[in-house]
Write a structure and sequence with these properties.
Layout: E1 4-9, E2 20-24, E3 45-49, E4 55-59, H1 60-63, H2 67-75, E5 82-83, H3 91-104, H4 127-132, H5 140-153, H6 156-170, H7 175-182, H8 190-199, H9 201-207
Parallel strand pairs: 3-5
Antiparallel strand pairs: 1-2, 3-4
């Protein structure tokens, strides 16, 4: 199994702003020390297991951008593997989250304005973030998996980015289109739905 390379990870004390490439190793069952992150090489990485059984060797400083991973490690420093039990945290999903955390380790994410300025994500977030979250709604399963995983891992900036992307996709759509995107079952009878429409007409008038 090949390695997933996470680029542009630098040490906190690197005042020259030189970007060093570091590897995140996802070879199942293999431990590889990633040097250059801490003085104590034995403590420089974490072994993290995904819901589908893959093992990632993750630089500690990157992993700690997840409050869940940080508190889990601090709660039991003798544990050999930090298990991620959220079913959406597969190898593919966690690998993408690592890409996000590795980039933002040295490039803190900016707060996203609410409401969104525009449906175009590049008007709301940095170009890198817009490209990262440029997931077509036809691949909504990955988008929702990222959202659930960011919430589980407690990576707040990523969660906000995912929610902003979903909001941008819902903008301007009909109620039925929103239901399909969000997998919401319409349990109203036609009569009940019409009653709600009549009752809430004043909301539409307020928007005019």
């Amino acid at each position: 199994m090949s390695k997933d390379e996470v680029k542009e990870i630098t040490d906190d004390n690197d005042n020259d702003n030189d970007n060093d490439n570091e590897d995140v190793d996802c070879d199942n069952g293999k431990d590889e020390v990633i040097e250059g992150l801490d003085d104590d090489d034995g403590d420089s990485y974490l072994t993290i297991g995904t819901a589908d059984g893959e093992l990632f060797q993750v630089p500690k400083k990157i992993g700690f951008m997840s409050n869940f991973i940080k508190t889990t490690f601090e709660g039991d420093k003798t544990a050999k593997v930090i298990e991620l039990k959220e079913e959406s945290l597969t190898k593919e999903c966690f690998g993408k989250i690592l890409e996000y955390m590795a980039y933002h380790f040295n490039n803190p994410a900016k707060e996203i304005d609410q409401p969104l300025k525009n449906k175009n994500m590049k008007e709301n977030v940095s170009e890198w973030d817009a490209d990262f979250i440029d997931i077509p709604i036809s691949n909504k399963d990955l988008l929702f998996a990222l959202t659930n995983s960011a919430n589980y891992l407690d990576v707040k900036p990523l969660l906000e980015l995912c929610c902003a992307k979903i909001a941008s996709e819902l903008e301007g759509r009909t109620t039925e289109e929103m239901r399909k995107i969000l997998n919401v079952v319409n349990d109203f009878t036609p009569e009940e739905e019409q009653e709600l429409i009549e009752r809430d007409k004043w909301l539409d008038e307020c928007d005019k």
